From TrEMBL:
Residues 133-272 form the SsuA/THI5-like domain. SUPFAM superfamilies: NosL/MerB-like, Periplasmic binding protein-like II. It comes from the Bacteria. This is NitT/TauT family transport system substrate-binding protein. Keywords: Signal. Residues 1-22 form the signal peptide. It comes from Rhodococcus triatomae. Pfam families: NMT1. Gene3D superfamilies: Periplasmic binding protein-like II (3.40.190.10).
Amino acid sequence: MKPTRLVPAVAAVAALTLSACSFEPSADADAVTVVVGYQSKTINTVTAGTLLRAQGFLEQRLAEIGEETGTAYRVEWQDYDTGAPITAQMVAEKIDIGSMGDYPLLINGSRTQDNPRARTQLVSVTGYNPEGALNMVVVPPDSPATTLADLAGAKVSASVGSAGHGTLVQALDRAGIDPATGVEVLNQQPQVGASALESGQVAALSQFVAWPGLLVHQDKATLLYDGAELGVPTLHGVVVRSAYADEHPEVLDAFLRAQLDATRYLVDDPLDAARIVADASGLPQEVVYLYNGPGGTTFETALEPHLVEALKGNVPYLESIGDFAELDVDGFVSDTALRAAFAAEGLDYDAAVADTSNPSVLRGTDPVCERAVDDVALAGEIWFAAGDATQVAADPTCLLRAVQQARADGRDIRGVYVPDTELGTRWFADKSVWVVDGDRYLPFTTEAAATRYLSAHPGSVPIEYERAVEEVRP
């Protein structure tokens, strides 16, 4: 079964001062320190980073240990833009636990393996998408490009060695473009690449979440390529220095159990979790909720076999860019500590491994079409400006009707989310490419996807989102 909430959220870190643990920089010099590297804006690692830190789950778990043993613990959080600097700090033995995307995870294991003190293991997953939709390629709003083939000979920004770069390389190869010579890849940090895209210095940007969604939400970009077209899982996970885990197994156990706390919190209350992550990261809540809301990222901790196989499939890409020493992936992945954490929480790890469904899905009754919301491939959602709840829609056509009715009622809308018809990717309804086929309205993440549908379905026609909202029959 899927985990259910076992530990309440920590409302105030101040309560921790009542325990034997200390978390201030001036703490007892004898305190056990754990240094955690995370990426506040990479929101698929929030259960091991931003949300975990904001809610104090790790500090609470360590405080419980301190109350039993009298040991003092100190947590030091270090925030980075990508996984590469976290790996560098782990190689230097300056970070004990880190979270990052799949390609950086492999690089982490490869680069740390020769030093027994730095050697790492992948001990949990934070979140994943079974089709690869967490990585995307975007272009400026006025770009003439409608397919990846249109980028031939152009400059593309990407963080080399990242999941976003890996998606670009694989996608170009499938499009018949040599990734090494067909485009000029500029190795840039995400925020630098975003500025380069906006200023016209590059024709496209290929990055991991939340950058594509953020730029599209800000009307600074249009989605050109949805990573889900690859059909290959992409994931984020947690690595720990094995030497640190051997010296302080109770800290790793506390971290993994705290990650379970954060995962339960996000699944149980995704809207509040989005608010917390947005406040801590500076990202818009609407963008955070795009990925962290129901039907978005699958937030699970189990090291499922299909994800391990996906990691093995990434190795050829890393070898192709000359940034990878041979790594025994099976030896790098270890679920021993996670199994123990599950058992301590009264959870069935094997059942979690076997269940690959997303624990966070839209359910309920569509108040406009007056029917059950029971198909996750069709279900949409409206987030109104007022209130702490959303309204579900059974399918995209019902979603448009709901938007039409909300506008007629004078209700302000904060965000509208809908799954892509072809790939299932959760996306902004007003940024989607829409097609009308008879009395059905169908959304697509990219123009290329809509074109594929139009070609295969004579009689269907493209339609602008605003016109669809106006014309859909109540």
